[in-house]
Amino acid sequence: MTSQSKTLTIAAISGSLRAASVNSAVLRAAARLAPADVTIRLLDDVRALPLFNPDEDNEAVAQSVQAFRRHLVDADGVLIACPEYAHGVPGAMKNALDWVVGSGELVNKPTMLLNAAPRASIAQASLLETLTVMTAMLIADTSISLPITIKNITEAQILEDAAVCDALRNALQVLVTAMRAVRAEN
Length: 186
Prior knowledge:
Elements: E1 8-14, H1 22-33, E2 38-42, H2 63-74, E3 77-81, H3 91-101, E4 110-115, H4 122-133, E5 137-138, E6 144-145, H5 155-160, H6 162-185
């Protein structure tokens, strides 16, 4: 995405691989609630990434890693929705982040965290720590916990919940403002 383009792009990453993932449903709902000049692209690349191995992080790195990195580079911002498993970040999410620690795709990239399980705060805190170390531009007002209490809620059900929709719209607007500011600086 060039800095001349008017459309903004957000790379959305779900930390869950479940087919009926609440986190993925929230990201799909967010894509439908985004401002008209914003495209949210759900990155399914996470499931295809090999286990991180620094010895394999070289010019011959796997195509799936190259594609994942390219999607992050091309995005103006990042949106992450991640569950908590056993008081931690799920392995697939941590693995995805490990692949971009050294390559820097998240450096100064406006980033938003969504927590679709408000009682699960340990993974959210861990993600904040990891992303801070990676120097992602965490936008505090966008890192929110959504009042979702239905375990297998669908995108359609999320879009029917006015409180969740308002929270998502408001957080997205703050993220978009930060993305525009970064674009204007570059």
